[in-house]
Design a protein that fits this description.
The chain is α+β, with helices and mostly antiparallel strands and 127 residues long. Helices cover 17% and strands 27% of the residues.
Length: 127
């Protein structure tokens, strides 16, 4: 299964076209990738291709929104979105990217707690 993955490392954007290993070889008890989540694919990529791959995951049910990223152009939770051939994965908000697909969450949490209508356009890391 082909995945188009946009990462942010060392302040630079990189887009990679990656192919997941056969599902049966991933050690997850799967026979194919259909129905597996984006977060499952990121875990497999971290284990098999890049041990430093950064992604966030917590509840695995879409409740905490920690794993939110831009999937096929729409911000969604990676733990609830099923994979498909040619899926496009990127950080939810590139200006808040810390590492790979991980974004600065304190601004998101702060916005949620204070019930502001939007997240600031720039992170404290933007100069």
């Amino acid at each position: 299964m082909l995945i188009h993955l946009t990462l942010y490392r060392d302040g630079a954007e990189r887009t990679l076209d990656l192919t997941l290993p056969p599902a049966a070889q991933a050690g997850l008890g799967l026979t194919d990738w259909n129905g597996a989540s984006v977060s499952t694919a990121l875990q497999v990529l971290q284990r098999t291709l890049d041990p430093q791959l950064g992604y966030a995951l917590s509840c695995r049910r879409g409740l905490c929104k920690v794993c939110a990223m831009r999937i096929d152009g729409e911000v969604q939770t990676a733990c609830t979105v099923p994979l498909h051939e040619g899926i496009r994965i990127a950080p939810a908000k590139p200006s808040l990217a810390l590492l790979d697909t991980v974004v600065e969450l304190s601004l998101v949490r702060s916005a949620r707690i204070t019930s502001t209508s939007s997240i600031p356009e720039h992170s404290p890391h933007d100069a």
